[in-house]
Amino acid sequence: MKITFLGTGTSHGVPMAGCDCKTCTSKNPKNRRYRSSVLIQENGKNVLIDIPAEFRLAAIENRIKKIDAVLITHGHADHIAGLDDIRRYNEIQKSEIPFFCDDKTADELRQRFSYIFKNTQDGGGKPRVKLNIIEEGNKFDAARFSVIPLPVMHGNDKITGFRVGDFAYITDVSMIPGGTFALLKGLKVLALDALRPEPHPTHFNLEQALQAAAIIGAERTFFIHIAHRLEHEELEAGLPENIRAAYDGLGIEL
User: Fold this and answer.
1) Torsional class of 213: left (φ above 0), alpha (ψ -120 to 50), beta (otherwise)
2) pTM score of the predicted model
3) Cα 242 vs. chain centroid, distance in angstroms?
4) How many Å apart are CA 33 and CA 249, to the nearest integer?
5) pLDDT tens over the chain, length 254 residues
6) Is 110 exposed, middle or buried (0-12, 13-18, 19+ CB in 10 A)?
7) Is 32 helix (H, G, I), strand (E, B) or coil?
Protein backbone atom coordinates (compact mmCIF):
# COMPACT_ATOMS: atom_id res chain seq x y z
CA MET A 1 0.00 0.00 0.00
CA LYS A 2 1.24 3.47 -0.89
CA ILE A 3 0.07 6.64 0.86
CA THR A 4 0.54 10.03 -0.82
CA PHE A 5 -0.18 13.23 1.09
CA LEU A 6 -1.83 15.50 -1.50
CA GLY A 7 -2.28 18.31 1.02
CA THR A 8 -1.27 18.84 4.63
CA GLY A 9 -2.56 22.32 5.47
CA THR A 10 -5.39 23.81 7.45
CA SER A 11 -8.50 25.52 6.05
CA HIS A 12 -6.59 28.67 5.00
CA GLY A 13 -3.79 26.73 3.34
CA VAL A 14 -0.15 27.80 3.55
CA PRO A 15 0.96 30.34 2.51
CA MET A 16 -2.08 32.09 3.90
CA ALA A 17 -3.48 35.03 1.93
CA GLY A 18 -2.19 38.38 3.15
CA CYS A 19 0.37 36.92 5.56
CA ASP A 20 4.07 37.82 5.71
CA CYS A 21 5.13 35.44 8.48
CA LYS A 22 8.28 33.35 8.11
CA THR A 23 6.32 30.20 7.20
CA CYS A 24 4.14 31.89 4.61
CA THR A 25 7.16 33.59 2.99
CA SER A 26 9.43 30.54 3.26
CA LYS A 27 11.15 29.20 0.15
CA ASN A 28 11.13 25.69 1.62
CA PRO A 29 8.59 23.71 -0.47
CA LYS A 30 7.63 21.73 2.64
CA ASN A 31 6.03 24.91 3.98
CA ARG A 32 3.66 25.06 1.01
CA ARG A 33 0.51 23.27 2.14
CA TYR A 34 -2.64 22.62 0.16
CA ARG A 35 -5.73 21.80 2.21
CA SER A 36 -5.47 18.30 3.69
CA SER A 37 -6.15 15.19 1.62
CA VAL A 38 -4.52 11.82 1.02
CA LEU A 39 -4.42 9.19 -1.75
CA ILE A 40 -4.30 5.47 -0.92
CA GLN A 41 -3.06 3.10 -3.65
CA GLU A 42 -2.88 -0.68 -3.71
CA ASN A 43 -3.30 -3.38 -6.37
CA GLY A 44 -4.11 -0.81 -9.04
CA LYS A 45 -6.89 0.84 -7.01
CA ASN A 46 -6.89 4.50 -5.96
CA VAL A 47 -8.94 5.76 -3.02
CA LEU A 48 -9.03 9.44 -2.09
CA ILE A 49 -9.79 10.79 1.39
CA ASP A 50 -11.41 14.24 1.10
CA ILE A 51 -11.42 16.41 -1.99
CA PRO A 52 -10.35 19.99 -1.15
CA ALA A 53 -10.16 23.02 -3.41
CA GLU A 54 -6.66 22.20 -4.67
CA PHE A 55 -7.57 18.65 -5.73
CA ARG A 56 -7.13 19.40 -9.44
CA LEU A 57 -3.66 20.85 -8.86
CA ALA A 58 -2.63 17.96 -6.62
CA ALA A 59 -3.96 15.44 -9.15
CA ILE A 60 -1.82 17.00 -11.90
CA GLU A 61 1.28 17.24 -9.72
CA ASN A 62 0.96 13.64 -8.56
CA ARG A 63 -0.14 12.27 -11.95
CA ILE A 64 -3.33 10.69 -10.68
CA LYS A 65 -4.87 8.78 -13.56
CA LYS A 66 -8.03 7.48 -11.90
CA ILE A 67 -10.11 7.63 -8.75
CA ASP A 68 -11.93 4.45 -7.75
CA ALA A 69 -13.61 5.79 -4.59
CA VAL A 70 -13.70 8.86 -2.35
CA LEU A 71 -14.04 8.85 1.44
CA ILE A 72 -15.31 12.09 2.98
CA THR A 73 -14.53 12.90 6.61
CA HIS A 74 -17.08 15.73 6.93
CA GLY A 75 -18.77 18.50 5.02
CA HIS A 76 -16.64 21.56 5.80
CA ALA A 77 -15.56 23.51 2.74
CA ASP A 78 -11.84 22.74 3.00
CA HIS A 79 -12.63 19.02 2.73
CA ILE A 80 -15.15 19.04 -0.15
CA ALA A 81 -14.66 22.22 -2.20
CA GLY A 82 -12.90 20.40 -5.06
CA LEU A 83 -15.74 17.98 -5.68
CA ASP A 84 -16.64 19.40 -9.08
CA ASP A 85 -13.24 18.38 -10.44
CA ILE A 86 -14.14 14.72 -10.04
CA ARG A 87 -16.00 15.03 -13.34
CA ARG A 88 -12.74 14.73 -15.26
CA TYR A 89 -12.42 11.22 -13.81
CA ASN A 90 -16.00 10.46 -14.82
CA GLU A 91 -14.91 11.25 -18.36
CA ILE A 92 -11.76 9.14 -18.15
CA GLN A 93 -13.44 6.18 -16.47
CA LYS A 94 -16.83 6.54 -18.18
CA SER A 95 -18.65 5.84 -14.94
CA GLU A 96 -19.92 7.46 -11.79
CA ILE A 97 -17.59 7.45 -8.79
CA PRO A 98 -18.68 6.13 -5.38
CA PHE A 99 -18.42 8.49 -2.41
CA PHE A 100 -18.60 7.20 1.16
CA CYS A 101 -19.67 9.42 4.07
CA ASP A 102 -22.07 9.59 7.00
CA ASP A 103 -25.66 10.71 6.50
CA LYS A 104 -25.07 14.25 7.78
CA THR A 105 -22.22 14.78 5.32
CA ALA A 106 -24.33 13.34 2.50
CA ASP A 107 -27.05 15.90 3.26
CA GLU A 108 -24.45 18.69 3.21
CA LEU A 109 -23.13 17.49 -0.15
CA ARG A 110 -26.65 17.45 -1.59
CA GLN A 111 -27.22 21.02 -0.39
CA ARG A 112 -23.89 22.55 -1.38
CA PHE A 113 -23.69 20.74 -4.72
CA SER A 114 -27.41 20.55 -5.46
CA TYR A 115 -26.87 20.78 -9.23
CA ILE A 116 -25.18 17.37 -9.17
CA PHE A 117 -28.35 15.67 -8.01
CA LYS A 118 -30.80 17.44 -10.36
CA ASN A 119 -31.76 16.52 -13.90
CA THR A 120 -30.18 19.18 -16.08
CA GLN A 121 -29.54 19.64 -19.77
CA ASP A 122 -27.03 17.43 -21.57
CA GLY A 123 -23.59 18.95 -21.86
CA GLY A 124 -23.91 20.76 -18.55
CA GLY A 125 -20.63 19.31 -17.35
CA LYS A 126 -21.17 18.06 -13.82
CA PRO A 127 -19.68 15.27 -11.73
CA ARG A 128 -21.46 11.94 -11.40
CA VAL A 129 -21.18 10.55 -7.91
CA LYS A 130 -22.95 7.78 -6.07
CA LEU A 131 -23.41 8.57 -2.38
CA ASN A 132 -22.98 5.60 -0.06
CA ILE A 133 -23.99 6.16 3.56
CA ILE A 134 -21.66 4.67 6.14
CA GLU A 135 -22.72 3.81 9.66
CA GLU A 136 -20.74 4.07 12.87
CA GLY A 137 -19.34 0.72 13.91
CA ASN A 138 -19.80 -0.94 10.51
CA LYS A 139 -16.91 -1.81 8.22
CA PHE A 140 -17.45 -1.21 4.54
CA ASP A 141 -15.73 -1.94 1.23
CA ALA A 142 -14.53 0.84 -1.06
CA ALA A 143 -12.84 -0.22 -4.30
CA ARG A 144 -11.84 -3.54 -2.68
CA PHE A 145 -10.38 -1.79 0.36
CA SER A 146 -11.84 -2.81 3.71
CA VAL A 147 -12.46 0.44 5.62
CA ILE A 148 -13.24 0.98 9.28
CA PRO A 149 -14.95 4.31 10.08
CA LEU A 150 -13.44 6.09 13.07
CA PRO A 151 -15.85 8.41 14.94
CA VAL A 152 -14.08 11.46 16.39
CA MET A 153 -15.19 14.83 17.71
CA HIS A 154 -14.51 18.09 15.85
CA GLY A 155 -15.63 20.51 18.53
CA ASN A 156 -19.32 19.68 18.99
CA ASP A 157 -19.57 17.84 15.67
CA LYS A 158 -19.03 14.13 15.25
CA ILE A 159 -17.04 13.45 12.08
CA THR A 160 -15.30 10.42 10.61
CA GLY A 161 -11.71 9.29 10.38
CA PHE A 162 -10.84 6.15 8.44
CA ARG A 163 -8.70 3.07 8.98
CA VAL A 164 -7.60 1.22 5.85
CA GLY A 165 -5.48 -1.80 6.70
CA ASP A 166 -2.65 -0.65 8.94
CA PHE A 167 -3.11 3.03 8.00
CA ALA A 168 -5.44 5.48 9.78
CA TYR A 169 -6.35 9.05 8.84
CA ILE A 170 -7.77 11.39 11.50
CA THR A 171 -8.16 15.05 10.62
CA ASP A 172 -10.04 17.90 12.33
CA VAL A 173 -10.18 16.28 15.74
CA SER A 174 -10.51 17.77 19.22
CA MET A 175 -11.35 14.54 21.06
CA ILE A 176 -10.96 10.84 20.28
CA PRO A 177 -13.54 8.66 22.07
CA GLY A 178 -12.35 5.57 23.93
CA GLY A 179 -14.08 3.27 21.47
CA THR A 180 -12.15 4.81 18.59
CA PHE A 181 -8.83 4.43 20.41
CA ALA A 182 -9.64 0.71 20.56
CA LEU A 183 -9.93 0.64 16.75
CA LEU A 184 -6.45 2.14 16.35
CA LYS A 185 -4.38 -0.67 17.80
CA GLY A 186 -1.54 -2.12 15.76
CA LEU A 187 -1.20 0.72 13.26
CA LYS A 188 1.88 1.02 11.09
CA VAL A 189 1.09 4.58 9.96
CA LEU A 190 -1.15 7.25 11.49
CA ALA A 191 -1.98 10.64 9.96
CA LEU A 192 -3.18 12.97 12.72
CA ASP A 193 -4.42 16.55 13.05
CA ALA A 194 -1.89 18.91 14.70
CA LEU A 195 -3.06 22.43 13.99
CA ARG A 196 -0.80 24.83 15.91
CA PRO A 197 1.00 25.34 19.25
CA GLU A 198 -1.88 27.17 20.94
CA PRO A 199 -5.12 25.46 22.05
CA HIS A 200 -8.03 25.47 19.61
CA PRO A 201 -11.69 24.63 20.32
CA THR A 202 -12.11 22.19 17.42
CA HIS A 203 -8.62 20.83 16.66
CA PHE A 204 -5.75 19.13 18.44
CA ASN A 205 -2.94 21.54 19.11
CA LEU A 206 0.61 20.20 18.96
CA GLU A 207 0.71 19.03 22.58
CA GLN A 208 -2.62 17.22 22.30
CA ALA A 209 -1.55 15.56 19.05
CA LEU A 210 1.66 14.31 20.67
CA GLN A 211 -0.31 12.92 23.62
CA ALA A 212 -2.81 11.13 21.36
CA ALA A 213 -0.02 9.76 19.15
CA ALA A 214 1.69 8.32 22.22
CA ILE A 215 -1.52 6.59 23.33
CA ILE A 216 -2.22 5.17 19.87
CA GLY A 217 1.34 3.98 19.47
CA ALA A 218 1.56 3.68 15.69
CA GLU A 219 4.95 2.68 14.30
CA ARG A 220 5.03 6.00 12.46
CA THR A 221 2.86 9.09 12.89
CA PHE A 222 2.62 11.99 10.45
CA PHE A 223 1.02 15.28 11.49
CA ILE A 224 -1.40 16.92 9.07
CA HIS A 225 -3.82 19.88 8.89
CA ILE A 226 -0.94 22.14 9.93
CA ALA A 227 -1.38 25.91 10.12
CA HIS A 228 1.24 28.55 9.33
CA ARG A 229 2.08 28.87 13.03
CA LEU A 230 4.22 25.73 12.65
CA GLU A 231 7.25 26.02 10.36
CA HIS A 232 8.22 22.63 8.95
CA GLU A 233 11.88 22.36 9.96
CA GLU A 234 11.31 23.86 13.41
CA LEU A 235 8.37 21.52 14.01
CA GLU A 236 10.31 18.41 13.00
CA ALA A 237 13.30 19.37 15.13
CA GLY A 238 11.18 19.07 18.26
CA LEU A 239 9.39 15.81 17.44
CA PRO A 240 10.16 12.27 18.60
CA GLU A 241 11.94 10.10 16.04
CA ASN A 242 8.82 8.15 15.05
CA ILE A 243 6.68 11.28 14.56
CA ARG A 244 7.18 13.53 11.54
CA ALA A 245 5.42 16.47 9.94
CA ALA A 246 3.81 15.39 6.68
CA TYR A 247 4.30 17.63 3.66
CA ASP A 248 2.60 17.89 0.29
CA GLY A 249 3.74 15.18 -2.09
CA LEU A 250 5.20 12.95 0.61
CA GLY A 251 4.80 9.30 -0.37
CA ILE A 252 5.23 6.42 2.06
CA GLU A 253 4.79 2.67 1.64
CA LEU A 254 3.46 0.15 4.11
Assistant:
1) alpha
2) 0.96
3) 21
4) 10
5) 999 999 999 999 999 999 999 999 999 999 999 999 999 999 999 999 999 999 999 999 999 999 999 999 999 999 999 999 999 999 999 999 999 999 999 999 999 999 999 887 666 689 999 999 999 989 999 999 999 999 999 999 999 999 999 999 999 999 999 999 999 999 999 999 999 999 999 999 999 999 999 999 999 999 999 999 999 999 999 999 999 999 999 999 99
6) middle
7) coil
51-86 as b/e, with b when 16 or more CB fall inside 10 Å?
bbbbbebbbeeeebeebbbbbbbbbbebbbbbbbbb
Give how many domains the chain has, as a whole number.
Answer: 1
Which is it for strands 69-71 and 157-164: parallel, antiparallel or unpaired? unpaired
Element (H, E) at 207: helix 206-216
Chain centroid to CA 236: 21
CA distance linking residue 152 with residue 158, whole number of Å: 6
Among 205, 201, 203, 200, residue whose Cα is nearest residue 230:
205
* CATH code, domain carrying 145: 3.60.15.10
Give the separation between CA 192 and CA 96, rounded to whole angstroms.
30
206 is in which domain, residue-wise?
A: 2-253
